[in-house]
Amino acid sequence: MTFFEAVLLTVITASTPLLIAALGELVTERSGVLNLGVEGMMAMGAACSFAAAVTFDSTLAGVLCGMLAGALMAALFALAVLGFAANQVGSGLALTIFGLGLSGLVGAPFVGSRRDPVAPLHIPGLSDLPVVGRILFSQDAFVYLSFALTVAIALFLVRSRAGLTLRSVGENHASAHALGLPVLKTRLAAILFGGACAGLAGAYLALVYTRFWSPGMTAGRGWIALALVVFAAWRPGWVLVGAYIFGAATVLQLHAQALQLGIPSQALSAVPYVATILALLLLSIRHGRAVGAPGSLGLPFVPDR
Amino acid sequence: MRLELVPRASVSPVMRAVAPVLAFLTAFLIGGLVIWLLGRSPLAAFQVYVTGPLQDPWALQELVVKATPLALIAIGLSYCFRANLWNIGAEGQYVIGAIFGSWLALATHGTEAGPWVLPAMMVLGLLGGALYGLVPAFLKTRFGVNEILTSLMLVYVAQLILDYLARGPWRDPKGFNFPQSVTFDPAATLPPVMEASRVHFGAVFALVAILVTAVVVACTLFGYRLRLTGDAPRAARFAGFSQKRTTLAVFAISGGLAGLAGISEVSGQIGQIQPSISPGYGFTAITVAFLGRLNPIGILAASLVVALLFIGGESAQILLRLPLDLTNAFQGILLLCVLGADALVSYRVRLVGRGAHA
């Protein structure tokens, strides 16, 4: 494997969790709900998936438990913001605080355990092609799933009736309700989907990216996923582009640290966070404020009868 | 089955008082359940977390020490949250305030600098926090960038700057390679409020900030402007209140107070620069602000309650071998309950059966 191939492979591994988590949040936000708990749901996904994978010695069990944990966390959020019409920003923050704490409890007995690498898929013929074979056709199943998810969500939003319902609920919940669309049910489904995606992203971090569990291992990736949705102007295709730009930035700063260029390692570690701010800034300068944001984003809805 | 919220004709004053209590009870029930699931006695845990520290004079002082930064930061955040602006980067503003103030402490270290050093450090801390808080505010007012994400990203940046300084240029050359600075001179150390007390002058800053805020919110045009901007942004615009100026002002205030909390903690409590100077005060203060319903007196009470949980968490770790993460998880649940209980003030909550026609 050449150096270039190795770098590309790590970029894909670094980008996939960002992509999956951001796609889930995109669906949630298109339904008009801002869930700032991505970081907490991701942390729980990572801890629960790792615990389950080690206990049952099965990656699949781990992944399913991670998604379930994310969805359960999201259900708690839904109870607060849909059931009790609570403030979405505050509730999302609370979910992150809760998730980071609880994941510490769940993961503590598993510190020091390790998982074997997840075997990449081998597609006969294609995987053996020179150059592109290793990069394009020898990834693990999550990577293909993340691409499939991007396409599926894009088609769902634009081409399906349910997608149209989801978007109208997000654009103007009062009108959607007046038309007889189930605002709260749609939002509940979108929140749960977002939670399952965040859980899956966490599972990928613990089972593929690091293959061990440590407290606070999500390291702000949930927040970067949130920024990606804004950066992508709430469009799935641009989430894909954004996730890979950020994945590449993360990997490049790691390689730069290894090269010992005389730059303090902390300056390089700050790159993904500064890049997020700059990306949001550039986007705002080019397009004006919050392009493509759903009209009812972040507003609580209480149906009148 | 589903929940149904029926709007009340007017805000219920009874519920306004009862809702936080209900939230607390719910959170304690859930917390007790979790402890029971972990195989410990919830009653013993309650004793260690709540009643234990209250009976121990040493722990009572520690309570005030821990409540000090929480109250200072939370009272600043209440300005932002009142105006419906989301500064969640107080942790970063706390760190930058500490760095600004500590710069002077280290620059005058070993010199015969006079009593001006300490006040100047506090002013620098205030200034550093305010400037750092103004970054997301400026990006929002000038370019329309979402303040939630930028203020949070700046937390990570601030922590990395502190890490760099503690391990690099500010490391004590005679410190056996430990990543920490020299211990501050007495002239740069915030004194205790009483002889041989652990409570330092930061507690006084917090009390002053709370009193000033109570007056500002209740009696000044600025306080009215904040409430109007938060509750009715359109009305605020018609009244001629500039949204931009409000944004810049509240971020400067909350950042400044977080910075003051940071330098007070480093100068009065830690006594030197280390790679980590906060157990997450800046984030916990968000819980404190909401728990106190953004009310100055409420925040004072909430900061003591949350500090109690902090100390209880530490003793539970030793006495019951319950992990510290439990305290953090409990905080999250408590905040969720407090926000959810808000609904009780303006709505009647009914549980509707599947068959019922609304």
Indicate the mean pLDDT of chain A.
86
> Over all CA atoms, what is the radius of gyration of chain B?
22 Å
Q: Let me know the largest β-sheet of chain A.
A: none
Ends distance of chain A: 64 Å
Helix count, DSSP H or I runs of 4 or more residues of chain A:
13
**Number of beta-strand segments of chain B:** 2
- In which order are the strands of the major sheet of chain B placed? 1-2
| Mean pLDDT value of chain B | 87
Strand content of chain A: under 5%
Low-confidence spans of chain B:
none
Helix content of chain B: 55-70%
Structural class by sheet pairing and helices of chain B: mainly alpha
Q: Biggest interface, and residues per chain? A: A-B, 53 and 50 residues
Calculate Rg of chain A over CA atoms: 19 Å
Sheet with most strands of chain B: 2 strands, antiparallel
Keywords:
heterodimer, A: 305 residues, mainly alpha, 13 helices, B: 358 residues, two-stranded antiparallel ribbon, 70% helix, globular
Q: Short summary of the structure?
A:
The complex is a heterodimer of chains A (305) and B (358). Helix content of chain A is 71%, strand content 0%.
Characterization of this structure:
The complex is a heterodimer of chains A (305) and B (358). With 305 residues, chain A is mainly alpha-helical. Chain A is built from 13 helices and no strands. Chain A has helices spanning 3-30, 38-56, 59-83, 88-107, 132-137, 141-159, 161-171, 173-178, 183-209, 221-231, 236-259, 265-269, 271-287. Chain A starts with a helix and ends in an 18-residue tail after the last helix. The mean pLDDT of chain A is 86. The longest helix of chain B has 28 residues, at 243-270. With 358 residues, chain B is mainly α. A two-stranded antiparallel sheet of chain B has the order 1-2. Chain B has helices at 13-37, 42-54, 57-82, 90-107, 117-143, 147-167, 202-219, 221-231, 233-238, 243-270, 281-291, 296-319, 325-346, and strands spanning 2-7, 347-352. Classes of the chains: A mainly alpha (305), B mainly alpha (358).
